[in-house]
Amino acid sequence: MRVILDAMGGDEAPRVTVAGAVEAARGGLAVLLVGREAEVRAELARHPGAASLPLELLAAPEVIEMGEHPAQAVRQKREASINVAMRALKEGRGEALYSAGNSGAVMAAALFGLGRLEGVHRPAIGAVLPLLEKRCLLVDIGANADCEPQDLVQFAQMGAAYMAAVYGIARPRVGLISNGEEATKGNALVQATFPLLEQSGLDFAGNIEGKDLTRGAVDVAVCDGFTGNVMLKLGEGLQELMVALLRRTLSEKLHYRLAGAVLRPGLRAALQRLDYTEYGGAPLVGVRGAVFIGHGRSNARAIASGLRAAAAAAQAGVVEKLASGLRATLAGAT
Amino acid sequence: MRVILDAMGGDEAPRVTVAGAVEAARGGLAVLLVGREAEVRAELARHPGAASLPLELLAAPEVIEMGEHPAQAVRQKREASINVAMRALKEGRGEALYSAGNSGAVMAAALFGLGRLEGVHRPAIGAVLPLLEKRCLLVDIGANADCEPQDLVQFAQMGAAYMAAVYGIARPRVGLISNGEEATKGNALVQATFPLLEQSGLDFAGNIEGKDLTRGAVDVAVCDGFTGNVMLKLGEGLQELMVALLRRTLSEKLHYRLAGAVLRPGLRAALQRLDYTEYGGAPLVGVRGAVFIGHGRSNARAIASGLRAAAAAAQAGVVEKLASGLRATLAGAT
Asked: What is the ipTM of this complex?
């Protein structure tokens, strides 16, 4: 098992990506780093003993920056790290690919370099949210800002196949994100999607709200990529806000400060527990390969977790199972 | 100053609404309770000394339930508490109205009973979010699931006028909720709205994400009612999840339990601080009256806070200022 890492992807690449790869490799995972050779080597040199770890380097002279137009950049910069990494995945030089770079570019490079699974109209990005007792895949979190009802149905099918393949959930329960639980709620897109999901053969829980999501009512929560992205970013913002509020509370009084010092390790662990980049990562579903997208602000630990999650999903045969799950669903639906 | 309360609105009405009215009245606020006379009187009788408080009762024999079709129910049940309350507001029997009932019905009853402010196409529901250092009005949080770009521009104008009137912010900064900060991001609606907001004469901050919102980057955050409702419900769910996680952490070890006991009052205050129903409430903007909507699950304290917020907004002359603000904006835009 080897994971291909876009070493140039992310706000602080390649410093953070290399540090993450070293951390994962120290745990025994083989990583193929793709990026500008001199820069990656210089970063590797900063980690004592890196030379003896299962790390290899594949040179890619170009880089796609966060601000670039994804599809254009992917077409023009053929030797960009994400394109070279995608080709390496296609050639079997690794079993999964992880990038914390421009997510639109990862998507475009995957479409361009790997292609879609049979029957897939639009691939989507999922995020495995770590909840209290279980995990939930939220899909789409940003690949498709405007969707048709059929797109949401396919996200549901792919999401269910993903949760079955990676987490062994025999019949994943699927919810449709809406502005109320009643069947009549929703914007035009959701209202048109609802009956299609009822007839899809999936275990459809109906419309769900954010609190159903966080309570673990479903295994897969479906929405358009605009809504999913807004939700994910709001979650990050609220977590930040709560930490700030907690910090302020703990500094209010001397006895709070003392109690806070006692609790610090527990609180830190609890917050990490909620960080989706640390658990399961964000799979790109619907393409012919196991591709995972990390947050641009990922730190070394998040990169290492992402690499491990990618390896675990590939180990579970996620792409083959997703493809066969989709074939079964498509056959059943007709 | 007197606030009209829909005593039958909310999951546990009239028990909780009456308790909230009693709490507000004990603080000196006059409240006109509208609802089924016998039920409201029976609830009032449970509060010792209620008879000497500034509370009055206006009988309304019918009730609109949470599950009913809003517009239909409002038309058919002319004597429903929300309709009777709206008429009382129009007749000047109180300066503001608060209801924790079916929010679609409150909206319909307001349109029907009060009408729109001049130039307003679609009224919207805002929520004043309590952040760390400031407040931010998120609008629309559910009145209009599908919107046109012009609707979002008007939500921005009304939101800015509201924050100017109630919180004295001379030139409120307005952000457009999107799936990324770059000007090119957004779904079709957001992309079409962006240039209109740029030309609106408002202090437009461009596209914002959830974390900009929670960091207090803007005074008004604009989105369609589907997105806003999903955001609000997700916020509730995440807060619930974090409390559960905190509770679990605090029970893990004996010394955590002890430290947790020390911190409990501070933590409770911090969480209350984030509850938007406790601070500022949710104004219905764009109608000819000061109407506030509460959460169906509001407890007595939240009802009391909502009544006080409604009174404060009416005291600030919110409807007149919103009307004149809109007139100025509309004049400036042409």
From this structure: 0.91
